[in-house]
Every structure is written in C-alpha cells, then in structure tokens.
Structure prediction request, 470 residues.
Amino acid sequence: MPSLLLALTLLLPAAAPAMLSTSMPVPARPPALAASPTAAATEEWHGWIRQGEREVPLGLTLRSDQPPVGTRQAELWLPDQGVRGQLAALTKSGDSDGLRVQLSRWPGQPTLTLKRTGQGRASILQGSFSQGAYRAPVTLWPGRVTLPARPQEPRPPLPYRTQEVTVLGQGAVPLRGTLTLPAGQGPFPAALLVSGSGPQDRDSTLHGHRPFLVLADHLTRQGYAVLRLDDRGTGGSGGDLYASRYRDLSGDLVQAVTFLRHHPAVRAGQVGLIGHSEGSSLAVMAAQQLQPAPAYLVLLTGPAVTGAELLDQQLRAQLNASGLNLTQIEARAALQRQALAGQALRPDHTDLSGSEVEQAWLHSRPFVQSPYLRDFVTYDPRPALRRNQVPTLALFGERDLQVPRAAGYLLMQKLLETQPGNLIRELPGLNHLLQPARSGLPSEYAQQSVTLDPAALHQISGWLNTALKR
Prediction:
C-alpha cells in the first residue's frame, strides 16, 4: 500500500530533538487501558509519538524470567506500521535505569532509548524514538497500547482455511506469506495481491489498517484462493527491497503466480493479480512476462505516469488541500526535486507537515540512492498499459491525493478503455486507500474506522465473477 507515494519531502532531514531530561515535566496521560496488576515478570507500557496533529500509538512489553532477575525480552508495538508485539533487541543504555530497544529487521530500524523514573504505578519510561533519520521525544506509561478499532478485520472462527507458505522469488529469494483457501475441495480461482510502494508486510499494514487482510477475507468468502506476501526484507521474507530493481520485483510476481498455478486447490487457468498503487504497475509488468497470460488484472488507485511526475503532482495536490499558497508549494516542489536528484539539503529544511511525516522509513539517505527508488522515479507505465491485453478492472477514489486524477484515472481511461472487457471506474468520496474521505489527505487514513469501503470490495468481487464467468 502507500508509502513512497506519500510526498517525498519525507526525505528531507528531520530535526532530531534532544532526549527528554528526567527533570522535564511529564504531561498527564491516563493509561490506554487500566493498568491492572500484571505478573511480576511482565511489564506493559504505552504511549505515542507525535506526527503533526496526530498521536501515533506506541507500546512496549518487557518480560523477565522471575523477579528480581533483570528483564530478558522486549516486544515492540507500532500498530500503525503492522508491528504488533514483535520481538526486539534489548540492551542497557547509560546507567542501570536506561534501556535501548531496537527492531533491526524493520524499515528504518525503529529504536527506543529510555530511562525509567519513579516507582510502581507512578513510574514512567522517558526518552526518544527514532526510525531512519526521524526523531521524536517519547514518554511511556504503565498499561497496554490501544489498538484502533478496525471492525472489518476478520475474527475467528473463519469459514475458510489459512496456510503459511514460502514462495521462492526471483533469484530464489524466500518470500513468506499467507494463502487463504475457501472451504471445499476446489479447485478455486485465485488472486495474488501486490502491495504498494515501500516495504509492506503481507497485510499492507498502514496506520493500523490491514487492507490486504480485509480484501483477502472478502474474496476468500466469495470463493477465491488468495495469496499475499511480505515484501522483500520485510516480515518473514528475505532479500532487500531497497537493493532490488523493478525487474526483480516483477520476477517475484511471476514466481508467485506460478506457485498458485501449481497448487492443487487452485484452477490454473483462473489466476490473476490485484495490485494497489505502485503494485498496479508491477502487476502489469508481470502480466506481460507470464506465459500464458494471467486471467485478469485488478489495478487499485494505480499511477499511469512516471514516479517523478507522480510525486510532483501528488505533492502539489496535497499541499494545496492543506492550504499552502502557490509560493510555498513551489518552494516545497523545488526541495523535492533536490531530494530526488540526491542533492544535500540544508538543515533548516525541517518544517515538515503532519502528512509529510507519515512514513519515517523514508528518512534514509541509502534509500534515496537505492536502485529501487531510481526505478520508481524513472519507470513509465504507459507503454505497458497500452500493450496490455489482459481483461482489467481499474478502480480509483474520487478524493485520491496520492494518485491525483490527472496521474491515474483520466490517463487510465485513455490507455485501457478501448480494450473489450476492461472497466475503469472512479468511486465517489473515496481516497487512495479506497476509504470514505473528507479531504483525501493521508492524515485522515488512521482516523477512519473503515479499512476498505464496501462499495470497492463489491465492485472488485462483482467484476471478477463476471470476468471469470462465475
């Protein structure tokens, strides 16, 4: 899901606030859940990091063998990014009251550097959070982190089967993921879900939403086998996304479709790809490498311009919606062009808005210089879209400010609508994630309890049923 398509001014260096001193006043903060007594061997902490006007939830679980033995294990919670109780490295920092927690196998290596003050329920953990070059002060209170309400996420018992699988991608890179299979013998038609830009887990977790989990659940209940994978270097998958070229990533999709075609529960002639955002471009690339061609393509809010064109249009659309004037917009656009060109930026360029700090992993100079970013910026999807002969559904949100109409919907109409069986549709009132939206700005994503609008879900499954004559 999105990610890179958030304004690339994220690449500008962020100011690094000094670690909070223990003598600083601590804001009053009620526990997310009442800090009920827990086993002496387990401590639960919760807090937040501020991004513009948003408070992004953060949690930490510390476990020890038995008191008074010191803490042996740390689990980090960043539900907006899909980190839910993930085991992290724990070391001492400074004196005996200091600790450092780092999630090394996650984009930007989220790190907490904390110092404990106070006793018992009056104690707090205070210090700093970093991810890539992003820095923020943080305070954690006793209690469990609150997960945002996401009513569309499936709850057991489920009326279908789930398998953990490993697909060997291009160059034999192991890609781990989840295959959901409807009840019954099959064989079933199948879908491969292709995530948007940046490192995404198999659920395409963003701002506490797990849209691929919701989409897979919907389609599996409709009788489709669905495969979703962790991106390279994310979750359980091997490899390095930043070091990968588009040919590597499209090759991964070819291998995943081949995996599905050989699965005994899948109808080999009815396998297709569903790509979101950048994943739409990669799905079209893979479709033209596959022999035979896939049965269908579903392109969700995908761009039809180069990444460089898209980032410029996206930035202007978002800053205009945020109320900036033309002079301010042009200044930010110039800084973005500098960042894309790999130029060093002055340290005073730190006044990032909330929507520009949505994805801290983008604060990374190696990322700016990566083969992956170079392909994103330069790849033009128009020739592949013109050649596309696969039946295709292209869906867009009317209020999408990450792939604005001129970069997506309007161009896709010209490129795809002449082919029989294709449908290009813009859904009213929806944003880049196909959620109901007011402004369409990324800052709204987390505030919305709907993960995928039901109209979009039914449009996808309805079109698939027609295209596959089910």
